[in-house]
Design a protein that fits this description.
This protein has about 450 residues and is α/β, with parallel strands linked by helices. It has 16 helices and 17 strands.
Length: about 450
Amino acid sequence: MKPIQVGLLGIGTVGSGTFKVLARNQEEIKRRAGRGIEITMVADLDTARARAAVGEGVKVVGDAREVISNPDIDIVVELIGGYGIAKALVLEAIAAGKHVVTANKALLAVHGTEIFAAAHAKGVMVAFEAAVAGGIPIIKALREGLTANSIQWIAGIINGTTNFILSEMRDKGLDFDTVLKEAQRLGYAEADPTFDIEGVDAAHKATLMSAIAFGIPVQFDKAHVEGITKLASQDIKYAEQLGYRIKLLGITRRSPKGIELRVHPALVPAKRLLANVEGAMNAVVVHGDAVGTTLYYGKGAGSEPTASAVIADLVDITRLHTADAAHRVPHLAFHPDAMSDLQVVPMSEVVTSYYLRLRVADEAGVLAKVTGLLAGAGISIDAVLQREADEVGGEGSTQTDLIILTHDTREGTLDEVQAHLQGLPSVLAPIVRIRKEELS
């Protein structure tokens, strides 16, 4: 049988890894797919770099539209990234009747509804395993492996850059800015790390997982997004003393009010497996009603780990290339006419527990005032840690840190109480608040 012919748009880190892994494991992949899969055409603005990466025997062009218009190309792999030209090229490939594989989580999180509708109308597949958690097959697990389950919640460390930074801050007691510079030096963080450290990258991925888990449209604009730039080393230290570690989590959860979709730092009990994911690794925990809790762990980025996911998609499409479009696995796991209209819950209505750190005057009655305000709002306290003044400000200090862990409460309620707490004369600095997730 004639091999499936693939056109590659972009031959950067992931593109070159895809070409290498496909060439290296060609025979084994052919045995699994049932026919050969060959990259026969590559488009990249840097044609010299592309030629050096793929060698002879592959057509290299500078214009991606030459790949899309080539009638011999069966699958287009988009590895350009971003929202701009990538969106136009993906839609043009679909219109030309090509299947698409992409690692572009930003594109799908923002424009996925339009792209999947176009693919459905044209009877082609859009596969995106590489868009979430690199080499971890979490998309396939959610779309297929857990299809018998009603998914209850997902929580994931889905950005390696931020996890590396938080691991280094905890291990070495360094502040955020110092560790960010080290992460950039080592290549874990980009020169402009905004998407990573502000939580946007993780939110793109959480949006896709939420859509697949709950059968809702992709709704990145409704995600609550916070990054790690405001985390202080002392909060990481205090969390450790209380039996927790701070991780940037992507969370999506089924609740009585709808679907929660949020990315933010969170205290996770140190005994949980997720709390012990260190360095640039990724991990996703999924809780289903039938299977219980499952964990997926591995490299979330890198040339060959991401290439592994791209090629898995190529194999899937090859297997299903001649299948009736109506009987393929739907893009977002649920058939388009069976999607849910469940709403994304506003953050003020989310119920979770909290870590609060208050820099207060070291004087009698402060703790009673703080706990009294919390009790008056119906917020119960799980634990209190009060530091000696000389530990916080040195010998003779008149300030100390008061750390409180709460039980579950509505975020809007805590917003109101925090405003009152901040107004107390004995509270001397902005209150630090971090959500706490037990993941039980």
